[in-house]
Fold these 2 entries.
Entry 1:
Amino acid sequence: MTGSGRGGRATVMSVEIRVMTHEDVRDVSALADRLVGDDYYTPALVAETMERSTLSDQVFSYVAVSDGKLVAFRFVLPPGRWEHGRGQALAPERWGAPLEKTAYFQSCFVDHAVMGQGIGRRLAHRALADLKALGARAVVAHSWKESPHGSSLRYLTRLGFEAVAEHPEYWVEVDYTCALDGKPCHCTAIEVVLNLDQWTPPEATS
Ligand SMILES: CC(C)(COP(=O)(O)OP(=O)(O)OC[C@H]1O[C@@H](n2cnc3c(N)ncnc32)[C@H](O)[C@@H]1OP(=O)(O)O)[C@@H](O)C(=O)NCCC(=O)NCCS
């Protein structure tokens, strides 16, 4: 259910956070096309990423659903299921934890109509709690420097992530049409890290 929010944006009244399933593949791909550009997540890549997000039958990727409509998703690759993100650049010497104990926050997209309402934060809290229960010690992400409203870095910083490196043209070799640059993408990634040993689930926000 939605109401009328500030600046004409919809305010989501009730949002369910749940684990991503194969039935979500097309909706996840369509949302990514709208948010970041065509073909960043084709349906085939969504299915492949879900597979890499799975460890011992547990899926570490999540969706937010409002009124039966998928409004956001978060992909997470648990330790042992990744070596780099969509680009290649990484600064593991600055993480404070080894790769085999480190998870990767691959992507999070929230529908424009409901951005800035804490849905991305709720998806992250669910993921971080599950990763901590698994025994992961750190989480790495590549923040999109040019994201709308600077939302990416603001959101990750508020979760406790700290910037450790900046990678110009991080996505230049990814074969997709960037919503800002077309093809190729010239956007910059800021590599950020969260120490899970020190992270505790915040009360009343997730
Ligand atoms: C980044 C993103 C996943 C965060 O999810 P969210 O549900 O919007 O998260 P939050 O509600 O915690 O908002 C994050 C920050 O962005 C700001 N923001 C987000 N949307 C906004 C909007 N439409 N207008 C103004 N500010 C906005 C929020 O105010 C908040 O900043 P603050 O903590 O300093 O107040 C989401 O905004 C998004 O999909 N952005 C575009 C795609 C993207 O950048 N994904 C991450 C790629 S690494």
Entry 2:
Amino acid sequence: MPLPETLLDHARYPINEMHHPLRRSAIRKIRAELGKDGCALLKGFLSPEGLGLLLGEALERRAMAYFSQQTRNNAYFTGSDPTLPETHPVNIMMPRTNGFITADNYGPDTASHSLYHWEPLSRFLADCLEKETLFLYADPVSNMIVNVMTPGTRFNWHFDTNEFTVTLLLQPACSGGIFEYVPGIRSAERENYPEVSSVLGGCRDRVRQLDLHPGDLQFFLGRYSLHGVTENTGDTDRLLLIMSFTERPGITGNRQRVKLLYGRTTSIHGRSRIRPDSLLD
Ligand SMILES: [Fe+2]
């Protein structure tokens, strides 16, 4: 098993050396980008060896990917509400065709697992996000997953359950498969349905796109920014490793949503859920 730091371009990103100037400058860059629009990028974060290992582990597990049967959902992954108008964002159901390789397919002996559980990584991410501490997302099914986007599919507009997500692109689409987002369209206090409705209706005034390459580390505030991925118009899968962290321990996914997206739940999903805010989802 390689050491977690060898999975990174350590010369460029010595994140386990607390006082290294390159660590400090990476943190400054991320903070500035997140402050601007809730999205930040560290290009070439993985070493070639690390990218090869993580991609290899995803490809080995590709056959285990779960593709959900239900083909339509709203941006909140909740049910529709007949008391609201048909044009309300809660009632706008969009097709969903992508799949996930879930966390329970990765044993502790994998490079992906060891990177996610590497304490200097969560310490670095906490510093980038200006958080006291970050905890691993306590959801055993979805805390570290690979999104599989097959040719001809797209990931429609949605919000994430957790405030922020950290992703590593393992394999881009040959064409299409572009990440798009509308920064800060809602907040913990305000759903902002009118503007969400306008984006779902096709308005692109506030839509931004991100130029992502294999091995790039992306920070994204997905609880408040509507986001999605355009259609994969190439002929290979787009594979994205998603690592989730939370500010408080013990946070898990909504039982209904976990079942919908990943096809299974565990006993942990039956417990009353700790919610970070009072938003719909
Ligand atoms: Fe998302």
